[in-house]
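Workshop exercise sheet. Pairs work together: one partner reads the sequence aloud, the other fills in the structure field after running the prediction. Swap roles for the next sheet.
Pair: D.N. / O.F.
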Amino acid sequence: MSDKPDSNPAARWGEATRLVRGGTDRSPHGETAEALYLNSGFVYPDAETAAARFAGEAEGYVYARYGNPTVTMFEERLRLIEGAEACYATASGMAAVFGALACQVKAGDHVVASRALFGSCYQIITTILPRFGVDYTLVDGADLDQWARAFKPNTRCVFLETPSNPGLEVIDLAAVTEIAHGHGARVVVDNVFATPILQKPLAFGADIVVYSGTKHIDGQGRCLGGAVLSTRQFKEEELKPFLRHTGPALSPFNAWVLLKGLETLKLRVMAQCSAAERIARALAQAPGVERVLYPGLPSHPQHELAMRQMTAGGTLVSFFVTGGRERAFSMLRRLKLIDISNNLGDAKSLITHPASTTHRNIGEEARATMGITEGMLRLSVGLEEPEDLIQDLRAALSD
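Structure field:
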């Protein structure tokens, strides 16, 4: 038996162990919880060390915008969970999305994206990037023929969400990735709804994964944060220079909160998925509900695909009530337990009316192409007793 220490024990750990212990770097004090380094700068033993660190010739921190020990622990833990070579943490999920795209495109390039996107992601693709000369094409994410026809000689990358926000559209990751790579384009996946617990896009060939840590990773509505996971080369050569100089750095305190959130991520997500499926089945039988969208139900248009790509149906349920906005707002007013909020992935169940909140700014025409009607509601299922949530919804739906 070798007496040499195991240089990489995390490689042998299961997912639950990585969620609790991955990336931990204890200080000489030997603390049990990860240390919180609330500092913006660092000192050096001598000028030569400072010069070497800035030149990239020596290990060590130089400035919190470039890196921080607490942030590094969060990055390393999430990297291990995702199975990626590298991770770069950001101040928010949208900073992660914009950074992952903007660092690799320039004027004259072309981006292909699924049409069903979160409102701010839609604005980046259709409004912000075009200001810098980047063209785009939107496609029906479930239509592989549209994906194949959308590519041009100058297509640089693909951006998609699966499941999408708020319509829970599921996209065939392996197929889209194969098409994109055939055209020399990278694939960027917003995996926030599935979380790394339910779906690992890199395993299906995706190149880059982005998260809003604000959602399930925190899981308790406390702070903002985001992350980009990729190859080491992409991080070092394209992403890091862009983010370091544009400044969306994750604060050490938020990184610490997200670290603690990762410890319980799997327990929370699996419990929420179980409850979400029960609630989706109950809503499908509720009076006044026209349609329920939940990837875990056989009635979902891409149910079979969802079950191949994901280990469960997810924590979100979208449904449509009769009577449009008036009926939807009336139902929201009647809720006693579920809170009205545009956040998701929280321990508390939250519900929102996408047409007037998260997707208001994209316009009526764009909402129509995404299937977002005035009667649509998006429910983020929390950790309450499922039966209590079902009773709250039934009471609110009753006339």
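Discussion prompt: The CA atoms of residues 110 and 135 lie 5 Å apart. What would you look at next?
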